[in-house]
Amino acid sequence: MAETTPNHTQTVRGWAAKDSSGKITPFVFKRRENGADDVTIKILYCGMCHTDLHYIKNDWGITMYPVVPGHEITGIITKVGSNVSNFKVGDRVGVGCLAASCLKCEFCKDSQENYCDQLQFTYNGIFWDGSITYGGYSQMLVADNRYVVHIPESLPLDKAAPLLCAGITVFSPMKQHNMLQPGKKLGVVGLGGLGHIAVKFGKAFGLHVTVISTSPSKETEAKTRLGADDFLVSTDPKRMQACARSLDFIIDTVSAKHSLGPMLELLKIRGVLALVGAPDQPLELPSFPLIFGKRTVSGSIIGGIKETQEMMDVCGKYNITSEIELVTPDRINEALDRLARNDVRYRFVIDISPKSNF
Ligand code: NAP
Ligand code: ZN
């Protein structure tokens, strides 16, 4: 690495998984110097996405250890490169999943960098200079300014951090399928980090929102704290049947293998299910509920930078933030265990500010 990346001179403290055991340990590494297009960010908060857990455990078989996870990053700019005009020192900013893309293809030109075939992620990616990218479970980040967004003044940086991945991941398909229409009926499958923000977008835009969950214990809170209108336990076939053909749209955020059949039955004729969860095993997709209902199953990955900024501004306007549990870095492993056990309301965020005992 040293010979291919000579300008990686900045020493950074972070946390990394070094094997698939599921544990994180302190890790000191190097980041590049701040280049002409770069900004340097003092990281204050980083959300813990289930994707981090997939990478830490090598669920998808693509992890390059040591991996420093984290792609829900918020902080303050401490340095800007000479080509940077839209950010200045002191700005409150966020970085999500994107670290680099080709900048030339039809998708990059259309602000859909997330569909560029040379896309590189904020961690476990390979940057333009050949170095492996390290994410936000660390004290400082150097990012190309084209992949950085402003955080509205009205949003606290800790509760805004999960918007950089969980927020944009549900917002993008909601927009694409024109879901955000008052009075429409939305189903949200899986009430975790992504799911609870989908509920909030739905309610902010005046939709009727039904949560479809495997956890009966989440019902009261889903209704009182998040404002969900209805709650279905997916393992209760009677209630599921009673709600057949009732929903216009579904967002499926589940992190584990499951059947899409019972979810599709909930959709009206021509309804759309947007899949954003990324289980390591193929999902079951029975043909009958698909063909008899003329229904659509669609996929989506995060969002482009322009849309991420738009989503942030929408969140600023409607005061949408994540429900979080703040953890100090010495408790990351505990938080990962709880995330794996589905015991989080609804996103862990690491407090990386100086007062926390990093
Ligand atoms: P999370 O906070 O762990 O939430 C996932 C939810 O899925 C859980 O809260 C749980 O909800 C449900 N669930 C978990 N295990 C289940 C099982 N065995 N059967 C049925 N339901 C189960 O995870 P997250 O951070 O929201 O991420 C969710 C998934 O989206 C992950 O696979 C992640 O990698 C993926 N993701 C995709 C994108 C993208 O761009 N497409 C971006 C970010 C994340 P209930 O208790 O309500 O059932
Ligand atoms: Zn994520």
From TrEMBL:
Instruction: Give the InterPro entries listed for this entry.
Output: ADH-like_C (IPR013149), ADH-like_N (IPR013154), ADH_Zn_CS (IPR002328), CAD-like (IPR047109), ER (IPR020843), GroES-like_sf (IPR011032), NAD(P)-bd_dom_sf (IPR036291)
Q: Which family does it belong to?
A: Belongs to the zinc-containing alcohol dehydrogenase family.
Q: Which SUPFAM superfamilies match?
A: GroES-like (SSF50129), NAD(P)-binding Rossmann-fold domains (SSF51735)
Protein name from the UniProt record = cinnamyl-alcohol dehydrogenase
Specify the species.
Ensete ventricosum
The protein's GO terms of the molecular function aspect are: cinnamyl-alcohol dehydrogenase activity; zinc ion binding
A single Gene Ontology biological process assigned to it is: lignin biosynthetic process
Description of how the protein assembles with itself and partners: Homodimer.
Annotated pathway, please? Aromatic compound metabolism; phenylpropanoid biosynthesis
This protein's cofactor list reads: Zn(2+)
For this UniProt record, the keywords arranged alphabetically read as follows:
Lignin biosynthesis, Metal-binding, Oxidoreductase, Zinc
Q: What is its EC number?
A: 1.1.1.195
**Is Oxidoreductase a UniProt keyword of this protein?**
yes
Domain Enoyl reductase (ER) intervals: 19-350
Chemical reaction(s) catalysed: (E)-cinnamyl alcohol + NADP(+) = (E)-cinnamaldehyde + NADPH + H(+); (E)-4-coumaroyl alcohol + NADP(+) = (E)-4-coumaraldehyde + NADPH + H(+); (E)-sinapyl alcohol + NADP(+) = (E)-sinapaldehyde + NADPH + H(+); (E)-caffeyl alcohol + NADP(+) = (E)-caffeyl aldehyde + NADPH + H(+)
Q: Zinc: is it a keyword of this entry?
A: yes
